[in-house]
Each structure stands twice: as C-alpha cells, then as structure tokens.
Amino acid sequence: MLENIRLSFQGIWAHKMRSFLTMLGIIIGIAAIIAIVSTIKGTNDQIKENLIGSGDNIVEVKLFEGEWNYVSGDSMTPENMPMINKTIKEELLSVDEITAVSAYRMGSMYDGIGYQGNMINGATIIGVDEEYFSVMGYRLVSGRLFDSHDRTQFTKAVIIDSNTASSMFGSDSPIGKNIEIRGDVYVIAGVVEETNEYKPKVENINDWYTYYYDDAGSKLFVTDVVWPNLFGFDEPYNVVVKPVNTEAMTNAGKKATEILNAYMPVNEDGSESIYKYKSEDLLEKAKELQDLSESTSKQLIWIASISLLVGGIGVMNIMLVSVTERTREIGLKKALGARKKVILAQFLTEAAVLTSLGGILGVGVGVGLAFLISDIAAVPVAISGSAIAISVAFSMVIGVIFGLIPSVKAANLNPIDALRYE
Amino acid sequence: MLLELKNIYKNYNQGNMEVPVLKDINLTVEEGEYIAIMGPSGSGKSTLMNIIGCIDTPTSGEYLLDGSVINNYKDKELSEIRNKKIGFVFQNFNLLPRLSAMDNVALPLQYAKVGKKQRREMCKKVIAMVGLEDRMNFKPTQLSGGQKQRVAIARAMVNNPRILLADEPTGALDSKSGKQVMDLFDKLHEEGVTIIMITHADEIASRAKRVIKIIDGELLEESKQTQEVTENE
Question: Is the distance from CB of A138 to CB of A104 less than 8 angstroms?
C-alpha cells in the first residue's frame, strides 16, 4: 500500500502539469465548499453572539395577552393575576436549569415625570424586587440600591439609570434630588448603569430596533411594593430567570413558563385565560436565523458539489488516458504474476492520491478565500476542522469512485493484449 | 514431464473472420530441456510461447503444466503460475523505466509477497548471477541493451521458475551483447533450468538441444539435434 502511494506520487510528479489540471476541478470545488462553510459558520456564530450575548444569559418570561406582549396602559389591567411572591420564586429556583429569579412590574409613562417643573418625554417605570439589579446585570454608579427599609416602609425612593441622570441633571449629582412622578415626590437614591455582559450586541439601526425599541428612553426604578401607591392598582409581574448556562436557556424558559402558568386564573366559564406567560427564547430565535442562513449555504454547497462532479469526471478521463498509456506496463506486470487486484489497487490508489492532494490544496485555497471574503464583506470567519476533515475524506472518495471504472478496465486487461499494445 | 500440450488450437478474431493461428499443436517438454522454436514471422511461434507462459489461452485443446490441467484456471491461479513457475524474457526487455534495475528485478517477488529484506537478498543474488552488481541502482535508461536484457533475465529468474521463456532475447542486441546473453542462457541450462526460446538465427538455435519449427501454425518438424552438431560449431 505504502509502495503504491509512493509510486502514485512519483507518477503525479512525473506529469506535473497534467496532474495539476486534473486536480483543478477538485481544488475549485473543495475550495468553494470550505469558503462557504467557513463564512456561514462565522455568520452563525455572529448571529448567536448578537442575539444572546457572549456571557451568561437571562430568559425573560413575559405576560402575554393572546398573541401579544401585555403592555401596561394599552388595555385593561387584567385581574386576579398571580403576585410573584417568595413561594413562587422558590418554586422557580427549584428548577435545575435556573440559578436566579427576579420579578418586576413595568409600565410606560408618557408624561408626568420631571425635575423642578421640567417634564421629560416619558420613561419606563420598573417596579423591582430585591434581585432585579443583579439578575439583569445592572451596576451601581452612585448612591445606593434599595434596601429592606425601602420595602417595609414603602419609601418614596427612586433609582434612575445613567442615561436619565445625564439628560436630567447633566454633570450634577442626582443623588438626593427630588423628582416628580405623577404628582408625587420621589427622592433619587441611586444611579445604575446597564452592563453589556448579558445584552445583545448592537451594531446597526436594525439591531437597535430589534432589541431596544420598546425599552428605549429613560428608566426609573422603584420598589415593586410602592407600585400600587404610585398607580393605584396591582400591575401584573413579568419574570426574568437566569439559566445555568446558555444552552439551558430554552429549558429554563419553558419550565419557568409552566410553573407560572399553573398559577393563572381560569375564566368563570372554565375556559383558559387569554393571559399567559411566555418565555422569550433568544436561543430559539438565534437558531431560526441560523437555520435560515444554513439552508442558503446548503444550496450553495450543492452548487459547489457540481464542480466536484466535474472534477471527478476529469479525474476519470485522465485515469483512462493513464491506463491506455500504461497498457504495456500493465501487461508486463500481469506477465510477471501481478493479480487483478494488485493492478486495481495501483490505479485506485493513484486516483485517490490525486484527488486527496486536490482536496488538500482546495482546503488551503478555501481557507484563503474565506479570509478574503471576510475582509471584503466584513463577515467573520470560523474555520471548521470537521469541514476540512470531511472535505479531504470526500475528495479521496471521489478519487475512488471516479477511479473505479479506469482501474477495473486496467485490471481486466488481457495480459497478452496489453503486452502487444503499441 | 514438465508440460504437455494436447491438440492445441488458437484462433484470433479479426473483424468477423476467425483467423487460425495455431493448428493442432502437440508438444511435450521434459524438465531441464533447452528448446529453440523457429519459424517465419506470423507463423504463430509467439502465440505458442504465450500459451505456454499462461499469458494467452488456447481456443481449444488441453494444457498440462506440472501434471495439472490449467485450462480452466482463474486469475488467481494463473497469476501464481506466471509468478512462480514461469520466467519471461522479451525481445524489447520490458523494463519499467521509472524503477531501478534492483526494483525491476524485485517486481515478481513483490507480487509473491516476499518480505522486503528477503527480497533484497534474493535480488542481489540473481543480479550477481547476471554480473550487474555494480549497476544495481541504475535506471534502465542508464544501461546498455545487453545490460538491460541481463536485468530482464535476472527478473525472470528471481523466483526460481520451472521454465524460462525467451522471445527472441537477442533480437534487439548487437552480436557481442547477444553472445553474452546466450552464454548466460547456456549457464542457466547447465544449472538445470528448462529453457524455451524463440529465435530467427540458426547459430543461436544451434545452442539449443532441441529445435522446433512452426510454419503456418503447424508444428511441422521436431528435429533432435545431436550433441556432435553443437560441438562442431
């Protein structure tokens, strides 16, 4: 076998130009496939990173009204919604995939918020529990977070995010300042800032619309317990859970949803409430987008495979020429006692070595091409080791398949006819 | 008795016509014989030799080699016979140009699955026998015609075959190297090798102990030459 491989290399080297031209079809086909797979894999990694961030993630479990996200103030506030208390949270925490839980209330206000008579254009008001800031990845910039005193005494304390701080107070410290919310006075206790760790990357306006459109603008945080004082009703809670790792996102979301929906009230006639908790599954979303790009790439790979087919036919053609050229050699070898399978193995090895070499060169060209594409089109590249291994193995298989007919032809030559061949 | 041909016929298809090449050949060869086959071009002597060498098959008739009928042998058995029992020497040497003399000689051993080390030993021995120890690693293009033919003889002999078949072994050589090659055949004959050789030249045929003439596919005459005739020349 090794002997055959050595002889094959000798033969390929003896006909450099011819061998290279024969390999060209394989080289182009493999290069195209490697380039496609690498850029698609890079794009997919980017999709995932864009959607779910590179760090640990959170899964939002939000209240839905039928098909739509329930938005406070858009319609009637639903009644008899479960209050997410310690018991429910503990039940959620008992799920293996969930490491932390936070419940919060959220509403949008379009007016009624201001400082010393200067009203701002509206803000998102969030009523938070003890865990909210840590689960959502907020960092305290100045002042303090809420403490147990705030909760037991229903303190009128508010925490604002750094954007609001800079737009309302500029470079002045907002701590201790009084702001007006719906005619009530709240004292600013602290300023927080979102860390990017758990958030999708925003690279263009489309990303921004996708991820941040609904929670753009100012954010004001109060304790969830003062919500009824502020708005006069019990706003239903949304929940956010932190899974053990990114892969557990889907399951964590599903299990949390099941637990929460078990607490949902049933209508008087016994039918299901139109209000339901649903998890916002970014992993699933990323997968959908990846599937989409992958299906495109699969079509491209099929097209590239045509080049492999053409390359294979080229190999078959040149192997037939080679068999004809070496008819006398084959006859001689048979006269010296070479069996059919010896001749068969010799030519099959030669074809396989030829296409494997083409495959290896193709991988090299493909990797280069992938980096070139990523340079021009600004898409990331992820070189897949398995794709490289499969490509080289596949090109070897092409050699065996398309080398088969010429090799069988060689093996079946009649020794005397072959020896007499001029 | 080493081999026996009984009522051998061979036809070739040329277009729609069956052209008879050998007609009713009967021949027995004993161990250690030295036979020359003579005859004009196209008489069928090469075909006869190819049938004996198992690289061609008769259209009808029976071929016994070493006591067994080999007519119905398949590729596996025929390859083994060609490899172990028969050594072929061709007019135009038929050496593989890309291989060294040593590697050319080693080919039959390779097909016989002889180990590398033993292969080397056996090759060295036969190459020494043909007197080319110093040219072992030369490529055929670096050798003269006579040297090439001696390499080919070494290759034919490397597996210790029962019969050495030579198809005009001196046909492509000048008289000096032709004589060297013929001396080598004589030596092999003395060592007991059975030799069957095709030749056109009478002085070469005269070295053989038995001359067979083939004319128009028929084994016309089988003349035993006496020892004296050989010695007189």
Answer: no
Instruction: Identify all chain A residues contacting B94, using CB atoms and an 8 Å cutoff.
Output: 328, 332, 419
pLDDT for residue B201: 86
Span A227-245, average pLDDT: 84
A91 in Cβ contact with A259 (< 8 Å): yes
Nearest CB to B55 within list A14, A340, A415: A415
C-beta neighbour count of A291 within 10 angstroms? 11
pLDDT in tens, A85-115: 888 888 888 988 888 999 998 887 777 788 8
Domain map (residue ranges) of chain A = 2-51+288-420, 67-273
Sign of the dihedral defined by the CA atoms of residues B136, B139, B143, B145, in that order: positive
Beta bridge partner(s), residue A223: A128
Q: What is the pLDDT of residues A335-368, one digit of tens each?
A: 999 999 999 999 999 999 999 999 999 999 999 9
- The parts of chain B modelled with pLDDT lower than 50 are 226-233
Q: For residues A208 and A112, what is the distance between their CA atoms, to the nearest angstrom?
A: 27
Cα separation, B123 vs B144, in Å, equals 20
Alpha carbon distance A345, A331 (integer Å): 15
Residue A248 and residue A102: Cα distance in Å, rounded? 17
A25, pLDDT greater than 60: yes
Q: Do A336 and B111 touch (CB under 8 A)?
A: yes
Instruction: Give residues with Cβ within 8 angstroms of A346, minimum separation 6.
Output: A4, A7, A407, A410
What one-character-per-residue DSSP string does A150-206 give? HHHTT--EEEEEHHHHHHHHTTS--TT-EEEETTEEEEEEEEEEE-GGGS----SHH
B86: nearest CA partner in chain A: A336
User: How many residues in chain B?
Assistant: 233
Question: Looking at the whole model, is its pTM more than 0.80?
Answer: no
**Cβ density class B48-65: b for 16+ within 10 Å, e for less:** bbbbbbbbbbbeebebbb
